[in-house]
Amino acid sequence: MRAALARFWDGDLAWSWRHTPVAMLATFLLITLLVAAFGAPWIAPHNPFDLATIDLLDALKPPVWLSDGTTKYLLGTDSQGRDMLSALMYGTKVSLLIGLAAVAGAMSLGIVLGLISGYAGGRIDALIMRVADVQLSFPAILIALLIDGVARAVVPGDMHEVIAFPVLVGAIALAGWPQYARTVRGSTLVEKNREYVQAARVIGISSPVIMFRHVLPNVLGPVLVLATVHLATAIITEATLSFLGVGVPPTSPSLGTLIRIGNDFLFSGEWWITIFPGAALVLLVLSVNLLGDWLRDALNPRLS
Hints:
OppC_N; cell membrane
């Protein structure tokens, strides 16, 4: 294990990271946000969603550096008396979980369809790519809204909060698979004509085994870069849907839900209720985007 880590640290990717200050800063920022988000149950000052610990008399407290601020609530409180710092930690966790799950879903579906399209060719290729082209002609947020609306219309109203998380993940995943499919298809078209694929065919290995055991590992590089960039897009899409009121419920809010709740108080003087969640969302998306841009350049042999 130690030898493997040493080889990685001495490799080209680690060398590029060490000599790219923006990538190092983005990594530090992202790790900080990840620790704050997934460590929220242990390091958050309060549990903002435990009704037994919320006091309405503490509602709309300003941040600690303002005249009426208190050290009990460093970033102030919202209209319900919930600690904003703790709410940011829990909200960031929800946004990250939805983003990661949506990217995993879109990547899995896109890889499978891209491999089938590129390897099979013919009518199957034409059908899958035309579906992808049609979907790409619509904004991802519109497709996600459509899928979310259909799911909510089919499911009874008292089940909306229960299905909110999986429906949101599925909507974002179904809106994002075409990019993966097109990327994997392009790489598969090149790989299927290589000698190792021809040799596998000659000795009688089945097409599914060739696709997933031999071709797939050689097309994952661009997919991983795309997934890093898509994570930021998925988080923004989730925040947009939650801001529009069709995302996760207020009982387990994401950053988008917190921004929507705080938007009602923005012009009444309680600016911190929406500014802090907005700033956390910007920092999260910015760090992921910067890491994705660096990874794309580091793995591009033409830029080496």
